[in-house]
Design a protein that fits this description.
The protein is mainly beta. The chain has a single domain, classed as TonB-dependent receptor, beta-barrel domain (Maltoporin, Chain A). About 5% of the residues lie in helices and about 60% in strands. The strands form 4 sheets. It has a 22-stranded antiparallel beta barrel. The chain is globular and about 70 Å long.
């Protein structure tokens, strides 16, 4: 079955290319990738990278980051509860602990649990673009990017702007947001704030939610460099019915996230120098009712770090190096109090080979205070077949240490294992990209093998999940992305198609596996922007996933927007086919919902 899917993917890659190629897409040729240590253009990258730009963000029928990322090839968003409440993010079959999320290059890994990695104080109105790196590519960020990484780049306003929006709809949802910015080419400031409340899609307020976030960011160009900074906060209160346990479903949670960073850039001799200081604080209050008795877990984490990145051009290549230190702390009534540190140093070099080829090699050295050292090499090869086609091969080694929840949690539903060992993965990828005129096409085949995979398991019939190291993991897959932006069809803004197929095997006989086996065997996504009139936009997202057994279905979201000068109105629908799906945990996602909104803005 897997081999047949690979053949189909290859045929689609060939069939998707236009018979006659137009001139090179000039805009695509200018896209610079910030998430790779050696930088470079997107069209030349020796790996699979997707860019979600500002225009896509504004047109997409989503009001939160998780729903937006769900449309990207290879990205698996597993939501709990209403949109924006909580979601796990995985890439190419990895689980939530194996994906690294960043803001402006600041790593935001939560040491308590990766369930909190998307607890971010950033609204969609504050995002300029998102870079999604799939597979090998996380060399500069330690060993935490097994599946890949997601880098959120905030906006830098170059003029005055102001906007306010209000929305309401199904499940008693009501909310609003505002953003204000000012700036020019030398300096600027951006402020965004949002809140949304819902009575929930379940009776008795078991899925109600109240979400609030605010973010301020700024930048300044100086005589010998530049500075960027940011400060943000997010608070959530929500019913967590069946989030983590079906046997004890009555759960409730409150989380708070705080984030601050300062980045500086300068030139020293022939080197570009970037330095970053950052801090993230997070608190989590969680209550479970067991036979009318309340069990409450409280956790408070703090992560602080510093990074230094260096880069210089060397004739026909780029040399990059850097290092960093991260200190993590937790105080918890359920996990106890712990501290740990991580130090990383890395070196990477990209060299042009002839007129069409390139090679990129890297080495990452990590020192974990409680697990010792790891050396993680990576290698990427790129070749421009002609002016439109680019091929690449890449391989990398990654390592991940367990979270404190995986080691120390003890509840009736989940029991950690203090003696867990780090998991180590080897990743391979081969891919093709096509850029020409109205079409962009990318396809890849990939494989991941993991030693001592960390997951939760139990024997059939048991209630309690136990953290353990699993052997014999192997994941293979293929993915395809296609974007069409017609220049001469005014009624079509763009069409996007992506398809991912996965086959994951584990040598575990008899035991149930909580996360590694819960992935989409097939995921097909079709989205686009249609313009029925000059001031009327219709965007849609159709996503079909097959997680095996009876857990498969199609999610349809649609947004119809009309602009009257500075005033805009819109109507959105989510899960319009009213599918009953369990993406993660044990409860179904909300059913059909409709929302209406109105907004006013100046500037942009």
């Amino acid at each position: 079955m897997f081999e047949r899917s690979i053949m189909i993917t290859g045929l689609l890659m060939l069939a998707g290319a236009p018979a006659t190629a137009a001139a090179d897409d000039a805009e695509a040729d200018r896209i610079v990738v910030h998430s790779r240590p050696t930088g470079g253009l997107l069209v030349e990258s020796p790996g699979s990278i997707s860019i979600v730009d500002r225009a896509q963000i504004e047109a997409h029928p989503a009001d939160n980051l998780a729903d937006l990322l769900a449309a990207v090839a290879g990205v698996d968003i597993r939501r709990r509860g209403a949109s924006g409440v909580q979601a796990d993010v995985g890439i190419r079959g990895t689980a939530y602990e194996q994906t690294l999320v960043l803001i402006n290059g600041i790593p935001l890994k939560d040491p308590q649990t990766g369930h909190h990695d998307l607890n971010l104080p950033v609204s969609l109105s504050h995002i300029e673009r998102i870079e999604v790196v799939r597979g090998p590519g996380g060399i500069a960020w330690g060993g935490n990017a097994t599946g890949g990484m997601i880098n959120i780049i905030t906006r830098r306003p170059t003029q005055g702007e102001f906007g306010v929006e209000l929305r309401a709809g199904s499940f008693g949802t009501r909310g609003g947001q505002l953003q204000a910015g000012t700036g020019d080419e030398q300096r600027g400031h951006m402020l965004s704030a949002s809140m949304v409340s819902s009575d929930g899609h379940l009776p008795e307020s078991r899925a109600d939610s109240d979400l609030r976030r605010v973010l301020y960011s700024g930048y300044a160009e100086l005589a010998r460099g530049a500075l960027e900074w940011g400060l943000g906060a997010e608070d959530k209160e929500f019913g967590a019915w069946k989030f983590y346990s079906a046997e004890f479903p009555d759960q409730r949670e409150e989380t708070g996230s705080r984030l601050a960073w300062l980045s500086g850039h300068t030139r020293a001799a022939d080197w570009d120098v970037n330095a970053r200081l950052y801090w993230r604080g997070h608190d989590d209050w969680f209550r479970t009712l067991v036979n009318d008795t309340a069990f409450i877990n409280e956790h408070e984490t703090s992560v602080r770090g510093v990074r230094l990145d260096l880069r210089r051009e060397t004739g026909q290549g780029v040399l990059a190096a850097g290092g960093g230190w991260t200190g993590e702390r937790i105080e918890s009534n359920a996990l106890d109090n712990h501290r740990r540190e991580e130090a990383v140093a890395w070196l990477a070099h990209r060299q042009e080979v002839g007129a069409r080829g390139s090679v990129e090699a890297g080495l990452n050295a990590i020192r974990f205070s409680d697990y010792g050292s790891e050396l993680l090499p990576s290698l990427g090869l790129g070749y421009r077949l002609n002016e439109h086609w680019h091929a690449h091969l890449s391989a990398a080694r990654t390592a991940r240490v367990p979270s404190w929840t995986e080691r120390f949690l003890v509840t009736g539903a989940n029991v950690g294992e203090p003696d867990l060992q780090p998991e180590r993965s080897t990743l391979y990828e081969a891919g093709l990209r096509y850029f020409a005129g109205e079409h962009r096409l990318a396809g890849a085949l990939f494989e991941r093998k993991t030693d001592a995979l960390i997951d939760w398991v139990r024997q059939p019939g048991e209630q309690t999940w136990q953290a353990d190291n699993l052997g014999g993991h192997r994941g293979r897959g293929a993915e395809l992305e296609w974007r069409w932006q017609p220049a001469d069809i005014a009624s079509v803004g763009h069409l996007d198609l992506s398809w991912t197929v996965l086959d994951i095997r584990l040598d575990e006989a008899g035991r149930e596996i909580k996360y590694a086996a819960d992935h989409p065997r097939h995921a097909l996504s079709l989205g686009g922007l249609i313009k029925p009139g000059s001031d009327l936009d219709l965007s849609f997202q159709l996503r079909w996933t097959d997680r095996g057994s009876d857990n498969r279905g199609t999610l349809l979201s649609v947004r119809l927007a009309r602009q009257f000068g500075r005033l805009g109105i819109w109507l959105e629908g989510t899960n319009l086919l009213d599918e009953e799906l369990v993406e993660t945990g044990f409860g179904t996602i909300p059913g059909r919902a409709v929302f209406a909104g109105i907004g006013w803005r100046t500037g942009r």
